[in-house]
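Sequence in, structure out. Go.
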Amino acid sequence: MEHLPKIIYDLALILVLAGAVTLIFKRLRQPLVLGYIVAGFLAGPHMPYMPTVSDLGSVETWGNIGVIFLMFTLGIEFSFKKIMKMGSSPIIAAVTIISAMSMLGSLLGHAFGWGRMDSLFLGGMLAMSSTTIIYKAFDDLGLRSQKFASNVLSVLVLEDILGILLMVILSTLAVSKDFDGMTVVDSLMRLLFYLALLFLVGVFVVPLILRKNRRWIGKETLLVVSVGFCFAMVVLAVKLGYSAAFGAFMMGSIFAETVEAETIEKIVSPVKDLFGAVFFVSVGMLVDPAILTQYWLPILLITLTILAGQAVFGSFGFILSGQSLKGALQSGFSMAQIGEFAFIIASLGMSLHVISGFIYPIVVAVSVITTFLTPYMIKSAPAAYGLVRRITPARLMAVLDKQPSQHKAAQEGSAWKRLIAALLKQIAAYSILCVAITAIMLSFFLPFFRHTMSHWVGNAVCALLTIVLLSPFLRAIVMRKNHSEEYRQIWRRNLPGGRFLLSMTILVRFLLASVYVYYIINYVSPFASWVHFALAMALVALMMRSKRIKLYSIAIERVFFQNLRSRDLQAEVHGKVKPLYANHLLSREIHIADLDVPENTAWAGKSLADLDFSRKYGIMVSSILRGGVRHNIPTANEQVYPGDRLEVIGNDEQLKVFASRMSEAVVRADIAPEQRQMQLKCISVGAASPLCGKTVRESGLREDYRCMIVGFEEGREALGLPSPSRVFRDGDLVWLVGEKNSLKRLIAENVRI
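Output:
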């Protein structure tokens, strides 16, 4: 008998149990994550009456792979450009919520008498709401089209990236065992540096590789390439002292800026679902009923802390971001749960051996409870708003209920502000690249050159090569934006001191570029500092004059921005980008929502005039997205088809009613699909049959009975093709194709021998 590794038996047990339990949870309309956790509990070592996983170490390894895939796909869904376009409101809300809940969780841990790291990690777990659970709750309750729901989802996107930062801080504190402020600041600065460096290099290199090899990359190859890049970044992140989750998320965010992002997300999704299921099952294995019984009071108090904390601090965060009291309460109450990110943070603490074993089961129990309570928390928000409205003074209530204006005219900042902002961004980006190249060359290549050549020759060669590599970026630091519209505008105005300050911006950038070159020369040369700096300034001046370096600099920047904007350009071509007016609607109560027409809708083929959405529901259809193409301002004669995405304009109530009516306008599917199966049957035409004497055209077999003549059997091996003028005669053998019931009715009514 062939011997199978233990992991095969364990996977069979895990996946069978997970499949069975999740089917039950699907029928109960509960999140699949909870089903996986329950399956893990059943397969774990604490369930005596069930088969148990024998090799926990291998399952844990597979679970870690699941975390990598989860964070990779999360990164693909994330985009740094989205953060930049969101404005300050979601950032304010996310930072407020995470800061308040982290502090609240840490204080609660200290109140329980837990250790410092246990308390810090507990704070991190309580700070992160579950995107999966909230998304599903909004779907189940029909709230996806509500305005507050879009605000919540924006904050959740930001929480994901802030969660990565939080994990890095926690891991740094866990390793260093040092809690002074400078350690945290240093770790954050290093993180931001590596984050920016990896993003800049990744966005330049990865899309370029994919674009150059697009004709040879199929789905299978794309899967292998993308997963390969993911694991390579995981290894690099671990080498830099960060977690594997950080590396996976980083590579996912790089792929998010490519035109292949959606394809990668689709092909990786089954792999993610498989390994993700194993991860959540491994989470459930750690649930010990004895620990839950022992720590029932902390579980209860942590649950109440999440519910009350998110209701208060979550709502407060949304109020600070500019939302009305009603919208803020709806948003805050929606986020009162913890989920998958809490498990990932707990796994990080367990892998670093810095948190106690009882934390994990407690967090799982709290997650299960808060998940079940999420729909009820969302439903209770209007009642809470009514209560707050009754007890709050009218003057204060008028301030809190004030809606943020959605139609403020975009106030263009001054030319100086725009110029300075652009200069700071470019200096930061190019400086990061310069520092990274310099560090690599002096740390790795300089010893090599010194070993293969003489000491001073190696120094000179390495310094020269480093300066050559830096030259396009140094020139860009000095010369970029010197011919921009903002620069010319300020120069033309010729206000007092304006041209002088412009000249000073160039001088400062020139000196900064010279400092980078000076550092390299000073590192390898023994001469006086003033000689090094003079030489550095001369070299930077030559870079500014060089046309070749100028061309290289422009080409590099052009490729980078082409890669960065490629997905947006593709989205515009395929009609996937919302119109610019979406955030500038004239009424504060009106917004735009995307709704997909169901496949089996009764609206199929009907025109907008026939459907009359404006009169019935008060909404307007601004665009129809069909087949990747946007049809703007459709006419009354435009027809609606299954799979169309309608962009509709209306207020919350109108959109809610419209979404409900769209769901109701669904044609009931066949109860017994086997009855619709096509059958082939041979019938004999007798003299008494009504068909006898009629032509095929006159018989009405297709029109009246939905049957089709395949042919007449005329003594040959092959059937004769039915001619429309062929007359049915006594004794004809006719082969027909049709549904079972249609054939029965035809035979009963027409075939009388």
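Check: The radius of gyration is 33 Å. Strands lie at 591-596, 620-626, 629-632, 645-650, 678-684, 708-713, 733-739.
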